[in-house]
Amino acid sequence: MRRIHALALIPFFALAACSTATTTTPTTEAPATASAPATSASASPTTAQSTGETLSGSGYTLTLPKGWEDATEAFQKLQPQVDSGAKQTKDTSDGFNDNVNVITQASAEVPFDQLQSAIKSQLEGAGSTDIEFKENAQLDGKEALQVWSHTKGAEKAHTIQFMAFNNGNMFVVTVSTNLADEKAAALAQQILGGWKWASA
User: Fold this and answer.
1) How much is the pTM?
2) What is the per-residue pLDDT across 55-112, written as a single tens digit (0 to 9) for each?
3) Three-state secondary structure along the chain?
4) Does 54-197 carry CATH code 3.40.1000.10?
């Protein structure tokens, strides 16, 4: 199996800077560009629907785009904190597989402005560039912070991350793709459209 190019996996979250709560924020590496369009997470009539395999994670399910495959084991070898992951089945001509991974962590809910500040500092510390926070998204009815960046070693690819809180946990969804801006945004929307919170 070709090595997965996904450098936004590492979420050792420590929001020590938060004065109102002690919780954790993702130390992840993610790709984005200032020119990438703001996106909304809810699927629209022009957004493709995910009709592929469904991953069952801790507190959620994620239906993948058609033709994607479960790559959880491969992701966990790279970063044990990964709860689930998947990749485009066929290699692209340049050998890059679009992929997604999910990390979950117990966490009190943190205001997005504090979370944004902590994430930006961590991404900068990890060498990520072109960090840009986009319009908040919707993850099956939950508001999600959205950040794009470029990661050291994969500067030509976007890493698009979404962070949301649900039932005492923080969920970090990371999409890595080398598609052009608009197609990358559409892919991220499609993946978010396949997300469902588990029933209580």
Assistant:
1) 0.79
2) 999 999 999 999 999 999 999 998 899 999 999 987 666 778 899 999 999 999 999 9
3) CCCCCCCCCCCCCCCCCCCCCCCCCCCCCCCCCCCCCCCCCCCCCCCCCCCCCEEEECCEEEECCCCEEECHHHHHHHCCCEEEEEEECCCCCCCCCCEEEEEEEECCCCCHHHHHHHHHHHHHHCCCEEEEEEEEEEECCEEEEEEEEEECCEEEEEEEEEEEEECCEEEEEEEEECCCHHHHHHHHHHHHHCEEECCC
4) yes
